[in-house]
Design a protein that fits this description.
- About 45% of the residues lie in helices and about 15% in strands.
- It is of the alpha/beta class.
- The longest helix has 18 residues, at about 160-180.
- The termini are far apart.
Length: about 280
Amino acid sequence: MEEFLQRAKSKLNRSKRLEKVHVVIGHKSCDLDSLISAFTYAYFLDKVGPPGVLCLPVLNIPRTEFNYFTETRFILEELNISESFHIFRDEINLHQLNDEGKLSLTLVSSNVLASEDKNLESAVVKVINPVEQSDAGFEFRESSSSLVVNEILQEAPELINEQLAHLLRGSILFQWMTMESEKISEKQEEILSILEEKFPNLPPREDIIDILKETQSSAQGLSIEQAMLKDLKELSDGEIKVAISNVSMALEILMQLQSDGGQLRGELELSTGLAVSYGE
């Protein structure tokens, strides 16, 4: 995977005038499932797609914000995938490519473009976005990674090597952990079993889950400002845009914020550009 990412980044940097570009871009939350799915699907397209098309996975955040995504950074560092190989949203001009008729887009983990990207809709050729399903009254969301694995297994199973299986399995397990479900869905269990049978030397699931839990703990070191920016979500009706962020914190910190009047709230609003309110 790192060889593909390095080669893609090098081609982007060397090419003064790109011809045809197929960008696979994940959600602005830059979660592990979205990122690994984008990496893997761009790799798949690079191998099976038509010649002359540059396939690029793009992280849908500026490079400066990547420090906020501690879980994602931790896992990639564990797998020796250098941050220098990543292509961030502020490092490629998608709007210019689209205006020139050179852009194709695959959306991962979302079927909606951000308001500032609405004019890119004509370039969207595929959406990989799991839907919420109900299982005995519990709402859960399948991972984008499992959808990507399923397509590759059907179209080009030889492309999945042990490193890629390790990445995808970790992504699926992390998605399951964040949903706080007691069991993995049948579809995702089937995908995990296929990967584990194909590569019996993969670490035990328990070891991977322990590492993923460690990444969640490391994420707790973010400042309130960083946590707000990391969790930022956008709602828009086309004219008005509202940014919402949900941050969990200890009761003592919340009480301090409230008792300090508007001082800390004002500092947060000034540094983040968000209006801060406190929930009960």
